[in-house]
Structure formats: structure tokens, C-alpha cells
Amino acid sequence: MSKSLVEISSKDQFDETLKSSKIVVADFYPEEFPPYEQIAPLYQTLAESLSGPNVVTFTKVNSDNNTALTREYGVTALPTFLLFRDAKVTWKTQGADPAELKKLVQALAAEVDSLGESSGGGGSAGGVWKGAEIPRGYADISDQVEIRNCELLNADEDAGPVKVLFNEFMPSALDKSKAGAKDKDWVQSGTDDQLLLFVPFQGSVKLHTLQITSLPTDGQDAIMRPEVIRLYINRTQNMDFAEADETRPTQEITFEPEDWNKNGTANVSLRYVKFQRTTTLVIYVQRSTEGAEAVRVDRLRFIGEAGTKREMGKLQKVGEDE
């Protein structure tokens, strides 16, 4: 088992873990349950990425071997994931569903941020990262993106795939521990300094803010930040560059140097009334700063409200009848 995962063998051990770590994530798991076996590697990856000594500890609790803990925390379905803050449960979710684990990560990020580990301009703790503060009253709804159906035009194939834009972890350009990593976790343009990104959502959402992170490079082959972007909503498919140039956008944004914070992130306030029922979004990077030959984007976050509230299912083992 990964060193980042603590296998719990007794109630005393678990109680001690709750005392020694500010935040604890517990995975109450079943034995020999195929759906869980498919999601277990994802949980391990999260533990390796997000654990921090005495701050965030990931644990695994075999429900068959720890019946006292299972009863104490009201676990009646497997798997169940619990998030503890100061030994108290602050989040509970169940099911071998990657989307539910993603919600857990978001809840974990909120807990870590509230510890004061990150600065007002965004930061990281235990690997959890955000580029900028989320406007009060709204939430990060990036999990509403249908990543598999996103399309990026004029992308440099030597950079990362489109899915890296929605990576929840700190960009490698800011993470010293990942210096020299072979996998590139950003996208950049190919033949010129333009990009066209088609983003479909799982349903209708209300968009309030777009957070875009761009970490330029210096030197002879400098890759720069966007200077002008255009947004188009509710297109049935991606546009081409000529169409994007000729079509009036829902909103156009021109960035100034002071718009980017120390994390390389800009908060773009959207004309909220125009983005109340957004099902798709086209982001057109029309040009980069300083006339560079290429433009780079490291992360995207969508802040607003999801149109449909997803209710928690009944607590039962996924794949089994009640």
C-alpha cells in the first residue's frame, strides 16, 4: 500500500490519527467488491497527491475488520468516504463513483483553505490548489464540464491534452517538487497565438466568473498569456477561427498586466445576466500579449451555480439491491 495511505487496524489507531492530523479522509471499503476495485486506484492517487504531514491524512478502513468504527460513524453502505475536520465529520459521500470522489476533493480543498494555509491570492496545502479566491456566494462548478467532449483547436501536440485545463492540482510550473516533470500539464497554441476551446456542460449552469491561469515562458521561443479572449455561449459545436472572428461574442475581455495575480491567475467577471442558462461555452483566445508566436493556458475554473442539484443516493452498496 502507498505510504500516503494509512490502513486502519483498530479504533484506537483511528482515534489517534484523528488527533494527530487536522484533516482526515476515511475510506470505509468492502472486501472483494468489483466496482470498488475500479475506484480504489483513484483514491490512492488522491492520497499521493493531496496528503500533507499533520495536515491531511488519507486512511482506509476495512469495514469487515472494523465493525465498531463502522457502527460509530453510521456507515450503512460501501464504499463510504468521510471527511473529518478536528475529529468531526464535515462531509460524507458514498458509492464507487469518480464524480463523488471529485466532490470530496472539492470539500477537502475548502477545509484546507479555511485552515489559513493559503494566502488571499490563492495557494496550496498538501497539493490542493486554487488560483484565486472564489467570489462569495458562488462555488467552483468545474465538475459540471463534460471533459471527454471538450475540443481544442490549434493545440500544440507537444503540450498537454485538453483535460489538463481542469486538473485540480497545482500547475507544475508553480510546484517545485515537479520541476523537470516529463508530463506537460498545460496547453499551448501551435501555428500561431490563437486557441479555440469548446466546453460542454452536463446541464444548464449559471456562470458568474471565469478563472484562467496562464504561466508564460521567457526566452527566444517565448510563450505568452492571452491578451484578448472572446466567449460564446450555447453553440452546438465548436466554431472555426474565421467564424469566431466574424461573430459577435457574448462577452469580450482584454487583459491588463495587473489582472494577473502572483499565481498567474485572472478572475474574469462575467455579465451574469447573459450567462444564466449556459449549456456550452466557446473560449476563443484571439491573441496573446506582446505579439508572441504562441499562447499558453494552464488551468480553467468555472465559478457560478449548477442548474440541477444532485441529491445523495440511499446508503447501500453500489451494485446491490437494498
UniProtKB/TrEMBL annotation:
Q: By what name is this protein known?
A: Thioredoxin
Single GO cellular component term: cytoplasm
Which residue numbers delimit the Thioredoxin domain? Answer: 1-110
SUPFAM superfamilies in the cross-refs: Galactose-binding domain-like, Thioredoxin-like
Q: Does the keyword Disulfide bond apply?
A: yes
The record's InterPro entries line, in alphabetical order, gives: Galactose-bd-like_sf, PITH_dom, PITH_dom_sf, Thioredoxin-like_sf, Thioredoxin_domain
Which family does this protein fall into? Belongs to the thioredoxin family.
Domain (PITH): residue spans on this chain: 130-322
Q: Which organism is it from?
A: Purpureocillium lavendulum
Organism superkingdom: Eukaryota
The alphabetical list of record keywords is: Disulfide bond
